[in-house]
Amino acid sequence: MIVCTGELDVHTAPHLDRQLGWALAIRPAPAILLVDLQEVSFMDSTGLNSLLTARREADRHGVLLALAHPGPQVTRLLELTGTAALFPLSPRPPRPQHPD
Fold first, then answer.
1. What is the β-pairing status of strands 2-8 and 32-43?
2. For residue 74, which of 99, 57, 50 has the smallest C-alpha distance?
3. Which residues have a Cβ under 8 Å from the Cβ of 12 and sit 6 or more positions away?
4. What percent of the chain has pLDDT over 70?
5. Please, what are the domains in the chain?
6. Peptide bond just before 14 cis, omega within 30 deg
7. With the CA atoms of 28, 64, 51 and 72 taken in that order, what torsion angle do they form, in degrees rounded to the nearest 10?
8. Which 8-state DSSP code applies to residue 73?
9. Which pTM value belongs to this model?
10. Residue 28: pLDDT above 60?
11. pLDDT tens readout for residues 46-76
């Protein structure tokens, strides 16, 4: 699972690209690669492009790229761009909360 936090934009997408690339290079390939978007507060077209590129690469390796808990802003971007149906949504157990 890859956990994303904060803003997923032109400044942070290269880091996500590297993480997705490393995860998809694992052999044997996992059946599912889950990208947790629960803590993403903003995603622009650059972040979406990272996910779309990774989805194409995942398909080439027989891996299902699924999104977990996209927030309202991310969901709206997926819907507006017509890409929501390309990413299955996968529930996952909530992460434990750490006291501050």
1. parallel
2. 50
3. 6, 47
4. 90
5. 2-86 (3.30.750.24)
6. no
7. -140
8. H
9. 0.86
10. yes
11. 999 999 999 999 999 999 999 999 999 999 9
Distance separating the N- and C-terminal Cα atoms of the chain: 24
Three-state DSSP class for residue 11: coil
Evaluate whether 37 touches 68 at the Cβ level (below 8 Å): yes
Query: What is the arrangement of strands in the sheet containing 64-68, beginning at the earlier edge strand?
Result: 2-8, 32-43, 64-68
> Rounded mean pLDDT of 74-80?
95
Element (H, E) at 38: strand 32-43
The closest alpha carbon to 87, from 57, 61, 52, belongs to: 52
Judge contact between 87 and 55, C-beta under 8 A: yes
Tokens of 51: 């996910």
DSSP state of 89: B
Neighbours of 61 (CB within 10 A): 14
Task: For the chain, give the number of residues.
Answer: 100
Q: Do the beta carbons of residue 67 and residue 89 sit within 8 Å? A: yes
